[in-house]
Design brief:
This protein is α+β, with helices and mostly antiparallel strands. The protein is built from four helices and six strands, in the order H-E-E-H-H-E-E-H-E-E. The strands form two sheets. A four-stranded mixed β-sheet has the order 3-4-5-6, with helices on one face. It has a two-stranded antiparallel ribbon with strand order 1-2. A hairpin with a 5-residue loop joins strand 1 and strand 2. The N and C termini lie far apart (66 Å).
Amino acid sequence: MSRWNRVRSAPPVALALVGAVALAGCGIEPTGVVESGRAANVPVTEPRSADVLYFVAPDGRLAPTVLHEPRQSAAALLARLLSGPGTRERDAGLSTELPARTDKTVGPVRVEFAGAKQLTVRLPSFRDADLSDTAKDQLVCTAAVAVDASAKAEVVLVTVDGTKSPRRCPLAH
């Protein structure tokens, strides 16, 4: 660009800058904070990234075991939990407080959904007295995490004794 072209283009550029500065202060006054109510609160169900079974660690606490295989239904996961810890879990020192299960003594586990985060687990052939609180927590946590990664689902356990009060996983986050 020649010197002459630079001089000719300088006034329009200067005028544009002066105009922009003038428009920036066009009389709009600043305001303070404007209250508009509470922020939106939308419940979101976390997607499950893997299936999890809950067994019992040597210290008596629940211990999650992540399954590295194709995803399964909540009923299939509970049936697997009822079959007890596998070799990998036993090698890790995990056990169960659920009563020993054979297919002849226990019918199929049924899971019924009452809502996005509410489910009923039907345990045929189990009496409520057969299940310790830890055993119930194993069932509740495994079922809850099967429908929501945060394990916040409400689970109702139904034994042959009838419907019990809804429970939540004590490890829910």
